[in-house]
Amino acid sequence: SNSPKNYSFIDDNPPSGNFEYRLKQIDNDGSFKYSQIVEASFIKPNKFELSQNYPNPFNPTTNISFVISHSSFVTLKVYDALGREIKTLVNEYKPAGKYSIRFDASRLTSGVYFYGLKAIPQNGNGTGVFIETKKLILLK
User: Fold this and answer.
1) What is the pLDDT of residue 127?
2) Which residue from 6, 29, 76, 118 could staple onto 90, CB 3.0 to 4.6 Å apart?
C-alpha cells in the first residue's frame, strides 16, 4: 500500500525477561527492511489474584480478570445465589500470567451470581492452592 499504516501486536503471557521486537516491511517488489527495535520488559506476577468483574452490574456481558503467579490447573466457574454451578469458563492448565475472560449471561435471568477461581500450582503436592470467590450482578 502507498498509504501509511499503523500496526500493533499483543504478546499474550510472555515469560519474564527483556525482549526485543521489530517489524519486517515487505514492499510490492519483494524487497524488505526492518523497523527500529522496540524493547520491552516483562515481570512475572508474584501472586494469585482474582479481580472484580467489569462492568458490574452488567447486561449481558462482563469481563473477569485473574492473575496466576505459577503454572497451575485453573478452574473458573459461575454459580447462582444458591451455589449451583451455572457455567464453567475455564477448566485447564495455564502458565503464569494475566488473563481476562468474557462472560456472556444473555441466557440468564437478572440477579446476583458468584464466580470462583481455583488454581492448583503445578508442584502437585496441594500446597499453595488459591481459591477465591466474588459476586457479580446481572441487571436486564
Assistant:
1) 64
2) 76
Query: Cβ neighbours of residue 84 under 8 Å, at least 6 residues apart?
Result: none
Query: Can you give the three-state secondary structure of the chain, one letter per residue?
Result: CCCCCCCCCCCCCCCCEEEEECCEEECCCCCEEECCCEEEEECCCCCCEECCCECCCECCEEEEEEEECCCEEEEEEEECCCCCEEEEEEEEEECCEEEEEEEECCCCCCEEEEEEEEEEECCCCCCCCEEEEEEEEECC
From the list 134, 128, 140, 135, the residue with the least C-alpha distance to 48 is 128
